Amino acid sequence: MLILGSVAMVTGASSGIGREIAIILASKGYDVILVARRESLLRDLADELLANHGCKAEVIVADLSEHSQVEMLKEMVPDLDVLVNNAGFGLWGMLSDQDEELLGSMVDVNVRALTDLARHYSGPMRERGSGKILNVASIAGYQPGPGMAVYCATKAYVLSFSRALHSELKGTGVTVTALCPGYVDTGFQEVAGMSLRGVESWSLVPVAKVAQIGVRAMERGRREVIPGFLNKPIPFLNRMVPVRINLAIVKAMLMIGRP
C-alpha cells in the first residue's frame, strides 16, 4: 500500500452514502482507500478527489461477499486511522421467494465482512491509542421487517455489534459509531427490488446530508446517530408499541405482495 499519513478506508465507496462519505473525508485532509466492486466508478471518484481536494486516493476492487477478497483487503491495507464499513445491500420480498445464494452473499457482506474488518483494524487502533470506526447500519436495525426479514436482521446485528464494540473500546482512544439512516435516495432500492411510495418518499433524507451527519457523529465519538427529524422517534416508539402492532405497521409500509 503506497498511501501514508492519515488514511481512511471506505467500503462500498462507488455510490450512495459511501461515495459521499469518501468525498467528505477527502475534504478534511484524509487520504482515502476506495473499496467496491465497480472499478470504473471508483476510478472516476479517485480522479475527482485528487482534482478537488489534492488527496491520494487508492482504488481496491473487491467483492466483500468473498472471504478471500476480505483477506486480500486486510493484507493490502495493514492499518488505518478511519474505517468506514458501508458496503451492504438488501433484498425485498418473501423469504421463500428469495435466491439462496444472494441471501448468503448479503449476510457475508452486511455481517461477516463488517465484523472481520472491524476486528482486524480495531486491534492496531487500540494499540496506537487512536482510531475511528463508522459502521453503516439502518433504521431497519431497530425493528423486524416482514418483507426484508434478513436485511433488517443483518442491520440489527450491525447496531448491536457497534454498541458493544463502542463500549469495549471506551477509554482506549478508539471510537465506534453506528450510522442508522432511514430511507435515502440511492441505488439501494433498485438492488433490493423495491420502490419508494407514501411515507418512504416524504421521509427521505438526501444522501449528502446522511453522510455529513454520519461523519460528524463519528468525529464526536457518538455511539449511534439517526439522520432525519421524522426518523429519530422510531426506536422509542418501537419500545412503546406491542410487537404485533409494530410488525403490522412495518409490513404495511414495506407493502408485501405489491407487484
Describe the overall structure:
This protein has helices spanning 16-27, 39-53, 67-76, 100-128, 149-168, 188-192, 199-202, 207-220, 234-240, 243-254, and strands at residues 7-11, 31-36, 57-61, 82-85, 131-136, 174-179, 224-225. With 259 residues, it is an alpha/beta fold. It has a seven-stranded parallel sheet, sandwiched between helices. Helix 1 (16-27) runs parallel beside helix 2, helix 1 crosses helix 8 and helix 4 runs parallel beside helix 5 (149-168).
Distance between the termini: 47 Å
List SSEs in N-to-C order. Answer: EHEHEHEHEHEHHHEHH
Strand order in the largest sheet: 3-2-1-4-5-6-7
**Tell me, what's the shape?**
globular
Break the fold down into its secondary structure elements and pairings.
Elements: E1 7-11, H1 16-27, E2 31-36, H2 39-53, E3 57-61, H3 67-76, E4 82-85, H4 100-128, E5 131-136, H5 149-168, E6 174-179, H6 188-192, H7 199-202, H8 207-220, E7 224-225, H9 234-240, H10 243-254
Parallel strand pairs: 1-2, 1-4, 2-3, 4-5, 5-6, 6-7
Helix pairs in contact: 1-2, 1-8, 4-5
List descriptors.
259 residues; globular; 13% strand; single chain; seven-stranded parallel β-sheet
Summarize the structure.
The longest helix has 29 residues, at 100-128.
